[in-house]
Amino acid sequence: MVKEYNIVITGVGGQGILTAANLLGWAALHAGYKVRVGEVHGMSQRFGSVIAYVRFGEDVYGAMVPEGKADVILAFEPVEALRYINYLKEGGLVIANSNPIPPVQVSMGLATYPGMEEIKKIIEEDFKGKLITLDAEKLALEAGNVITTNVVLIGALTQTPGFPLSAEHVKEVIRLSVPKKAVDVNMKAFELGVKAAKELLGL
Amino acid sequence: MAKVTDIVLWDKPGERVLLLGNHAIARGALEANIAVFAAYPGTPSSELTDTMAAVAEKAGVYMEYSANEKVAFETALSAAWSGLRAMTAMKHVGLNVAADTFLSAVGMGVEGGFVIMVADDPSMWSSQNEQDTRVYAKFANVPVLEPSSPHEAKEMTKYAFELSEKFKHFVILRTTTRISHARGDVVLGELPEEIKQAKRKFGDFKKDPSRFVDVPSNARRFHPQILEKIEKIREELAECPFNWIEGKEDAKVGIIAPGLAYSYVKEALAWLGIDDVKILKLGTPFPVPYRLLEKFFDGLERVLIVEELEPVVEEQVKVWAFDNGIRIPIHGKDCIPRVYEMTTRRAVTAIAKFLGLETPVNFEGIDEKYKKVSAIVPPRPPSLCPACPHRNTFYAIKKAAGSRAIFPSDIGCYTLGLLPPLKTVDTTIAMGASIGVAHGLDVALNGVPGEKETKEKKKIIVATIGDSTFFHTGLPALANAIYNRSNVVIVVMDNLVTAMTGDQPNPGTGETPHGPGKQIKIEEVAKAMGADFVAVVDPYDIKATYEVMKKALQVEGVSVIVSRQVCALHRISQMRRKGEKWPIYTVNEEKCTGCKICINAYGCPAIYWDAEKKKAQVNPLICWGCGGCAQVCPFGAFEVMKEGE
After folding, report:
1. Among A132, B318, B488, B620, which residue carries the largest CB count within 10 Å?
2. Which of B380, B379, B383, B386 has its CA nearest to residue B618?
3. B126, B183, B246, B260: best mutation site toward chain A, by most A Cβ within 10 Å?
């Protein structure tokens, strides 16, 4: 049994981040771990930048992952991976959806959106992490519904080297959690995420 | 992952489930056989309230969404006076609204257990200030319980009812965002038969004017009684199951960890690999039980108090130590910041420094590297949703009143109208304050009819307030403005739901957890109060909204415009559930001239700028189809996407 495993999930309010965190929390609970999931509700959910934490293991206490302690960051949007990169431990993995959602300030010309190369460079060179990106919306559409984007990303997450929960176990929790008519599309989305991450990680 | 509203009623003692702190408290209240629950929603307390609403009928509990926290407090208090177990819940600033009743009724005590759940928001994730409810507890001489985990929150809720009944006194259950909005493994306990059978419990109010009438002769008797009670409770709390001493018994160094700080201290010590310290885990930051302090301080040479926000525990400990001739160093706020929330980083940094150790991670090094990130990451503050009717209302107000008008606003999603490009929010303080401030500014800048002298060229003042906020505390302010002959426009942004806290009903919607209530129409209230101009508009028609605004600005006196359109998030969630579709807009690139009005004046998050093409674009994944962009664009470039595009 792992002592403590730390996942940070980031993205834009409305992308299904809290649902993903809750699903992972239940998967860890069913695997017998102590669990903490940290979220922020209210105003921050309105299309703002969002961070959620999932922690599990034999010994977990607070709901927030401290800076420098995340084993993996799952980012639903590329710049949101960079925004919370200070949470990643050295040698940690960042799995990011490659679809940018430009903030209103960028459209107004008040700020600029950094390039993917620049994001990758900071993550890998400055923060000693590894970045993989996948077009999760495209895979979700391929599975049958764009709403399964978060399940694609969860599928990818389970391929993180050293991830303590098996992909089959997480998949089963999702199967039991989604409405019956949505099971097939979610299972397909999960598998597409797994496959994409395997290729990207050379597994 | 079953539905939370099912889980909290599961008759499965011993089952391990994953619950939000707020859900765990709801379960605790049910396990404690609660009879009456009343609250006004407020982040981060709302999920407790909503869970109680969802299970009320199934558990035989009376639950109401009260018009504000003071009324909620009185509903629940009266039930407790009548011998029933009752609870109210609110965010920290809600206690300010309820404070009048709270502080005056303390001396009267209760018959049934009375628990006041207050959720604080350190770091102000969704709040206007960072007040610490434990200070209120001390002020009112009411005990406050503070959990260190969601499971403990559930257990403490049950204990809170028992403590309240034993001493016939109020009890505060204080959480913070990181308990209320943290999920944790919770073990379910037994549900009482009455809850399982949904049996409604009724009380009995025994008249006793010497107790329930707060005339000075009674109140003078109450004050010493309250002080006597709190000292008895302090004594009792030495045996409280949520207070304990752990760690190395003969350690020279001690750490006091109240509430959730205990979790951070545990993680910090494990991370540092330290075990030769003694810990005082405090679930009752007020009153601190002196008997436990005596035991804890025995043999210690140095003490660190790891406490979030105000030095509530620290002050009690230091006074006690001084009075008892203890002169060892006691550290607290000199090591832990008084502002913003506690984190593991703060705890580990303070403890490492206290013990002369290195932190396990070089946090300053991370901060240094992060400077590069801060410099290039574009800000992404929350924004009004796509299709949010408030955006259209603000757009019309600004167009009609001009950007030199003054725009007092209020507490709700619409506070986001402060951000560019709308920038139609000039003041926000507290619930209902928009109307009071609008009137006050009219007095200060223009003068009112009847005065010897008034300004000739008057400043335009347009206040905005939400439907729920209007009923919460807008009503007395509106009466005041009308009575005192203000000349202001008040726009009630009625999205037919209490949106920001999660779609709760309110007097304007007329629904209750027990079926239909009575719906109160805002325009009827305004007319009955004597407003000089009253109109209802649909903000999805921007031109019509603009014209009504123009008309209102010509009126001398108080104008009330009800801008009514259902919350877009609420509408879309319902449509998604039913599998319904909505129109999605797209940009006709031949018509788009790149003028950017849609971005620089309207600012829907679904519209973005394609810098290469120099055209606006719509993100079809987040367009919710209000068509506001099509009304705002002078060139007709926004069109509904055809099926299959």
Report:
1. B488
2. B386
3. B183
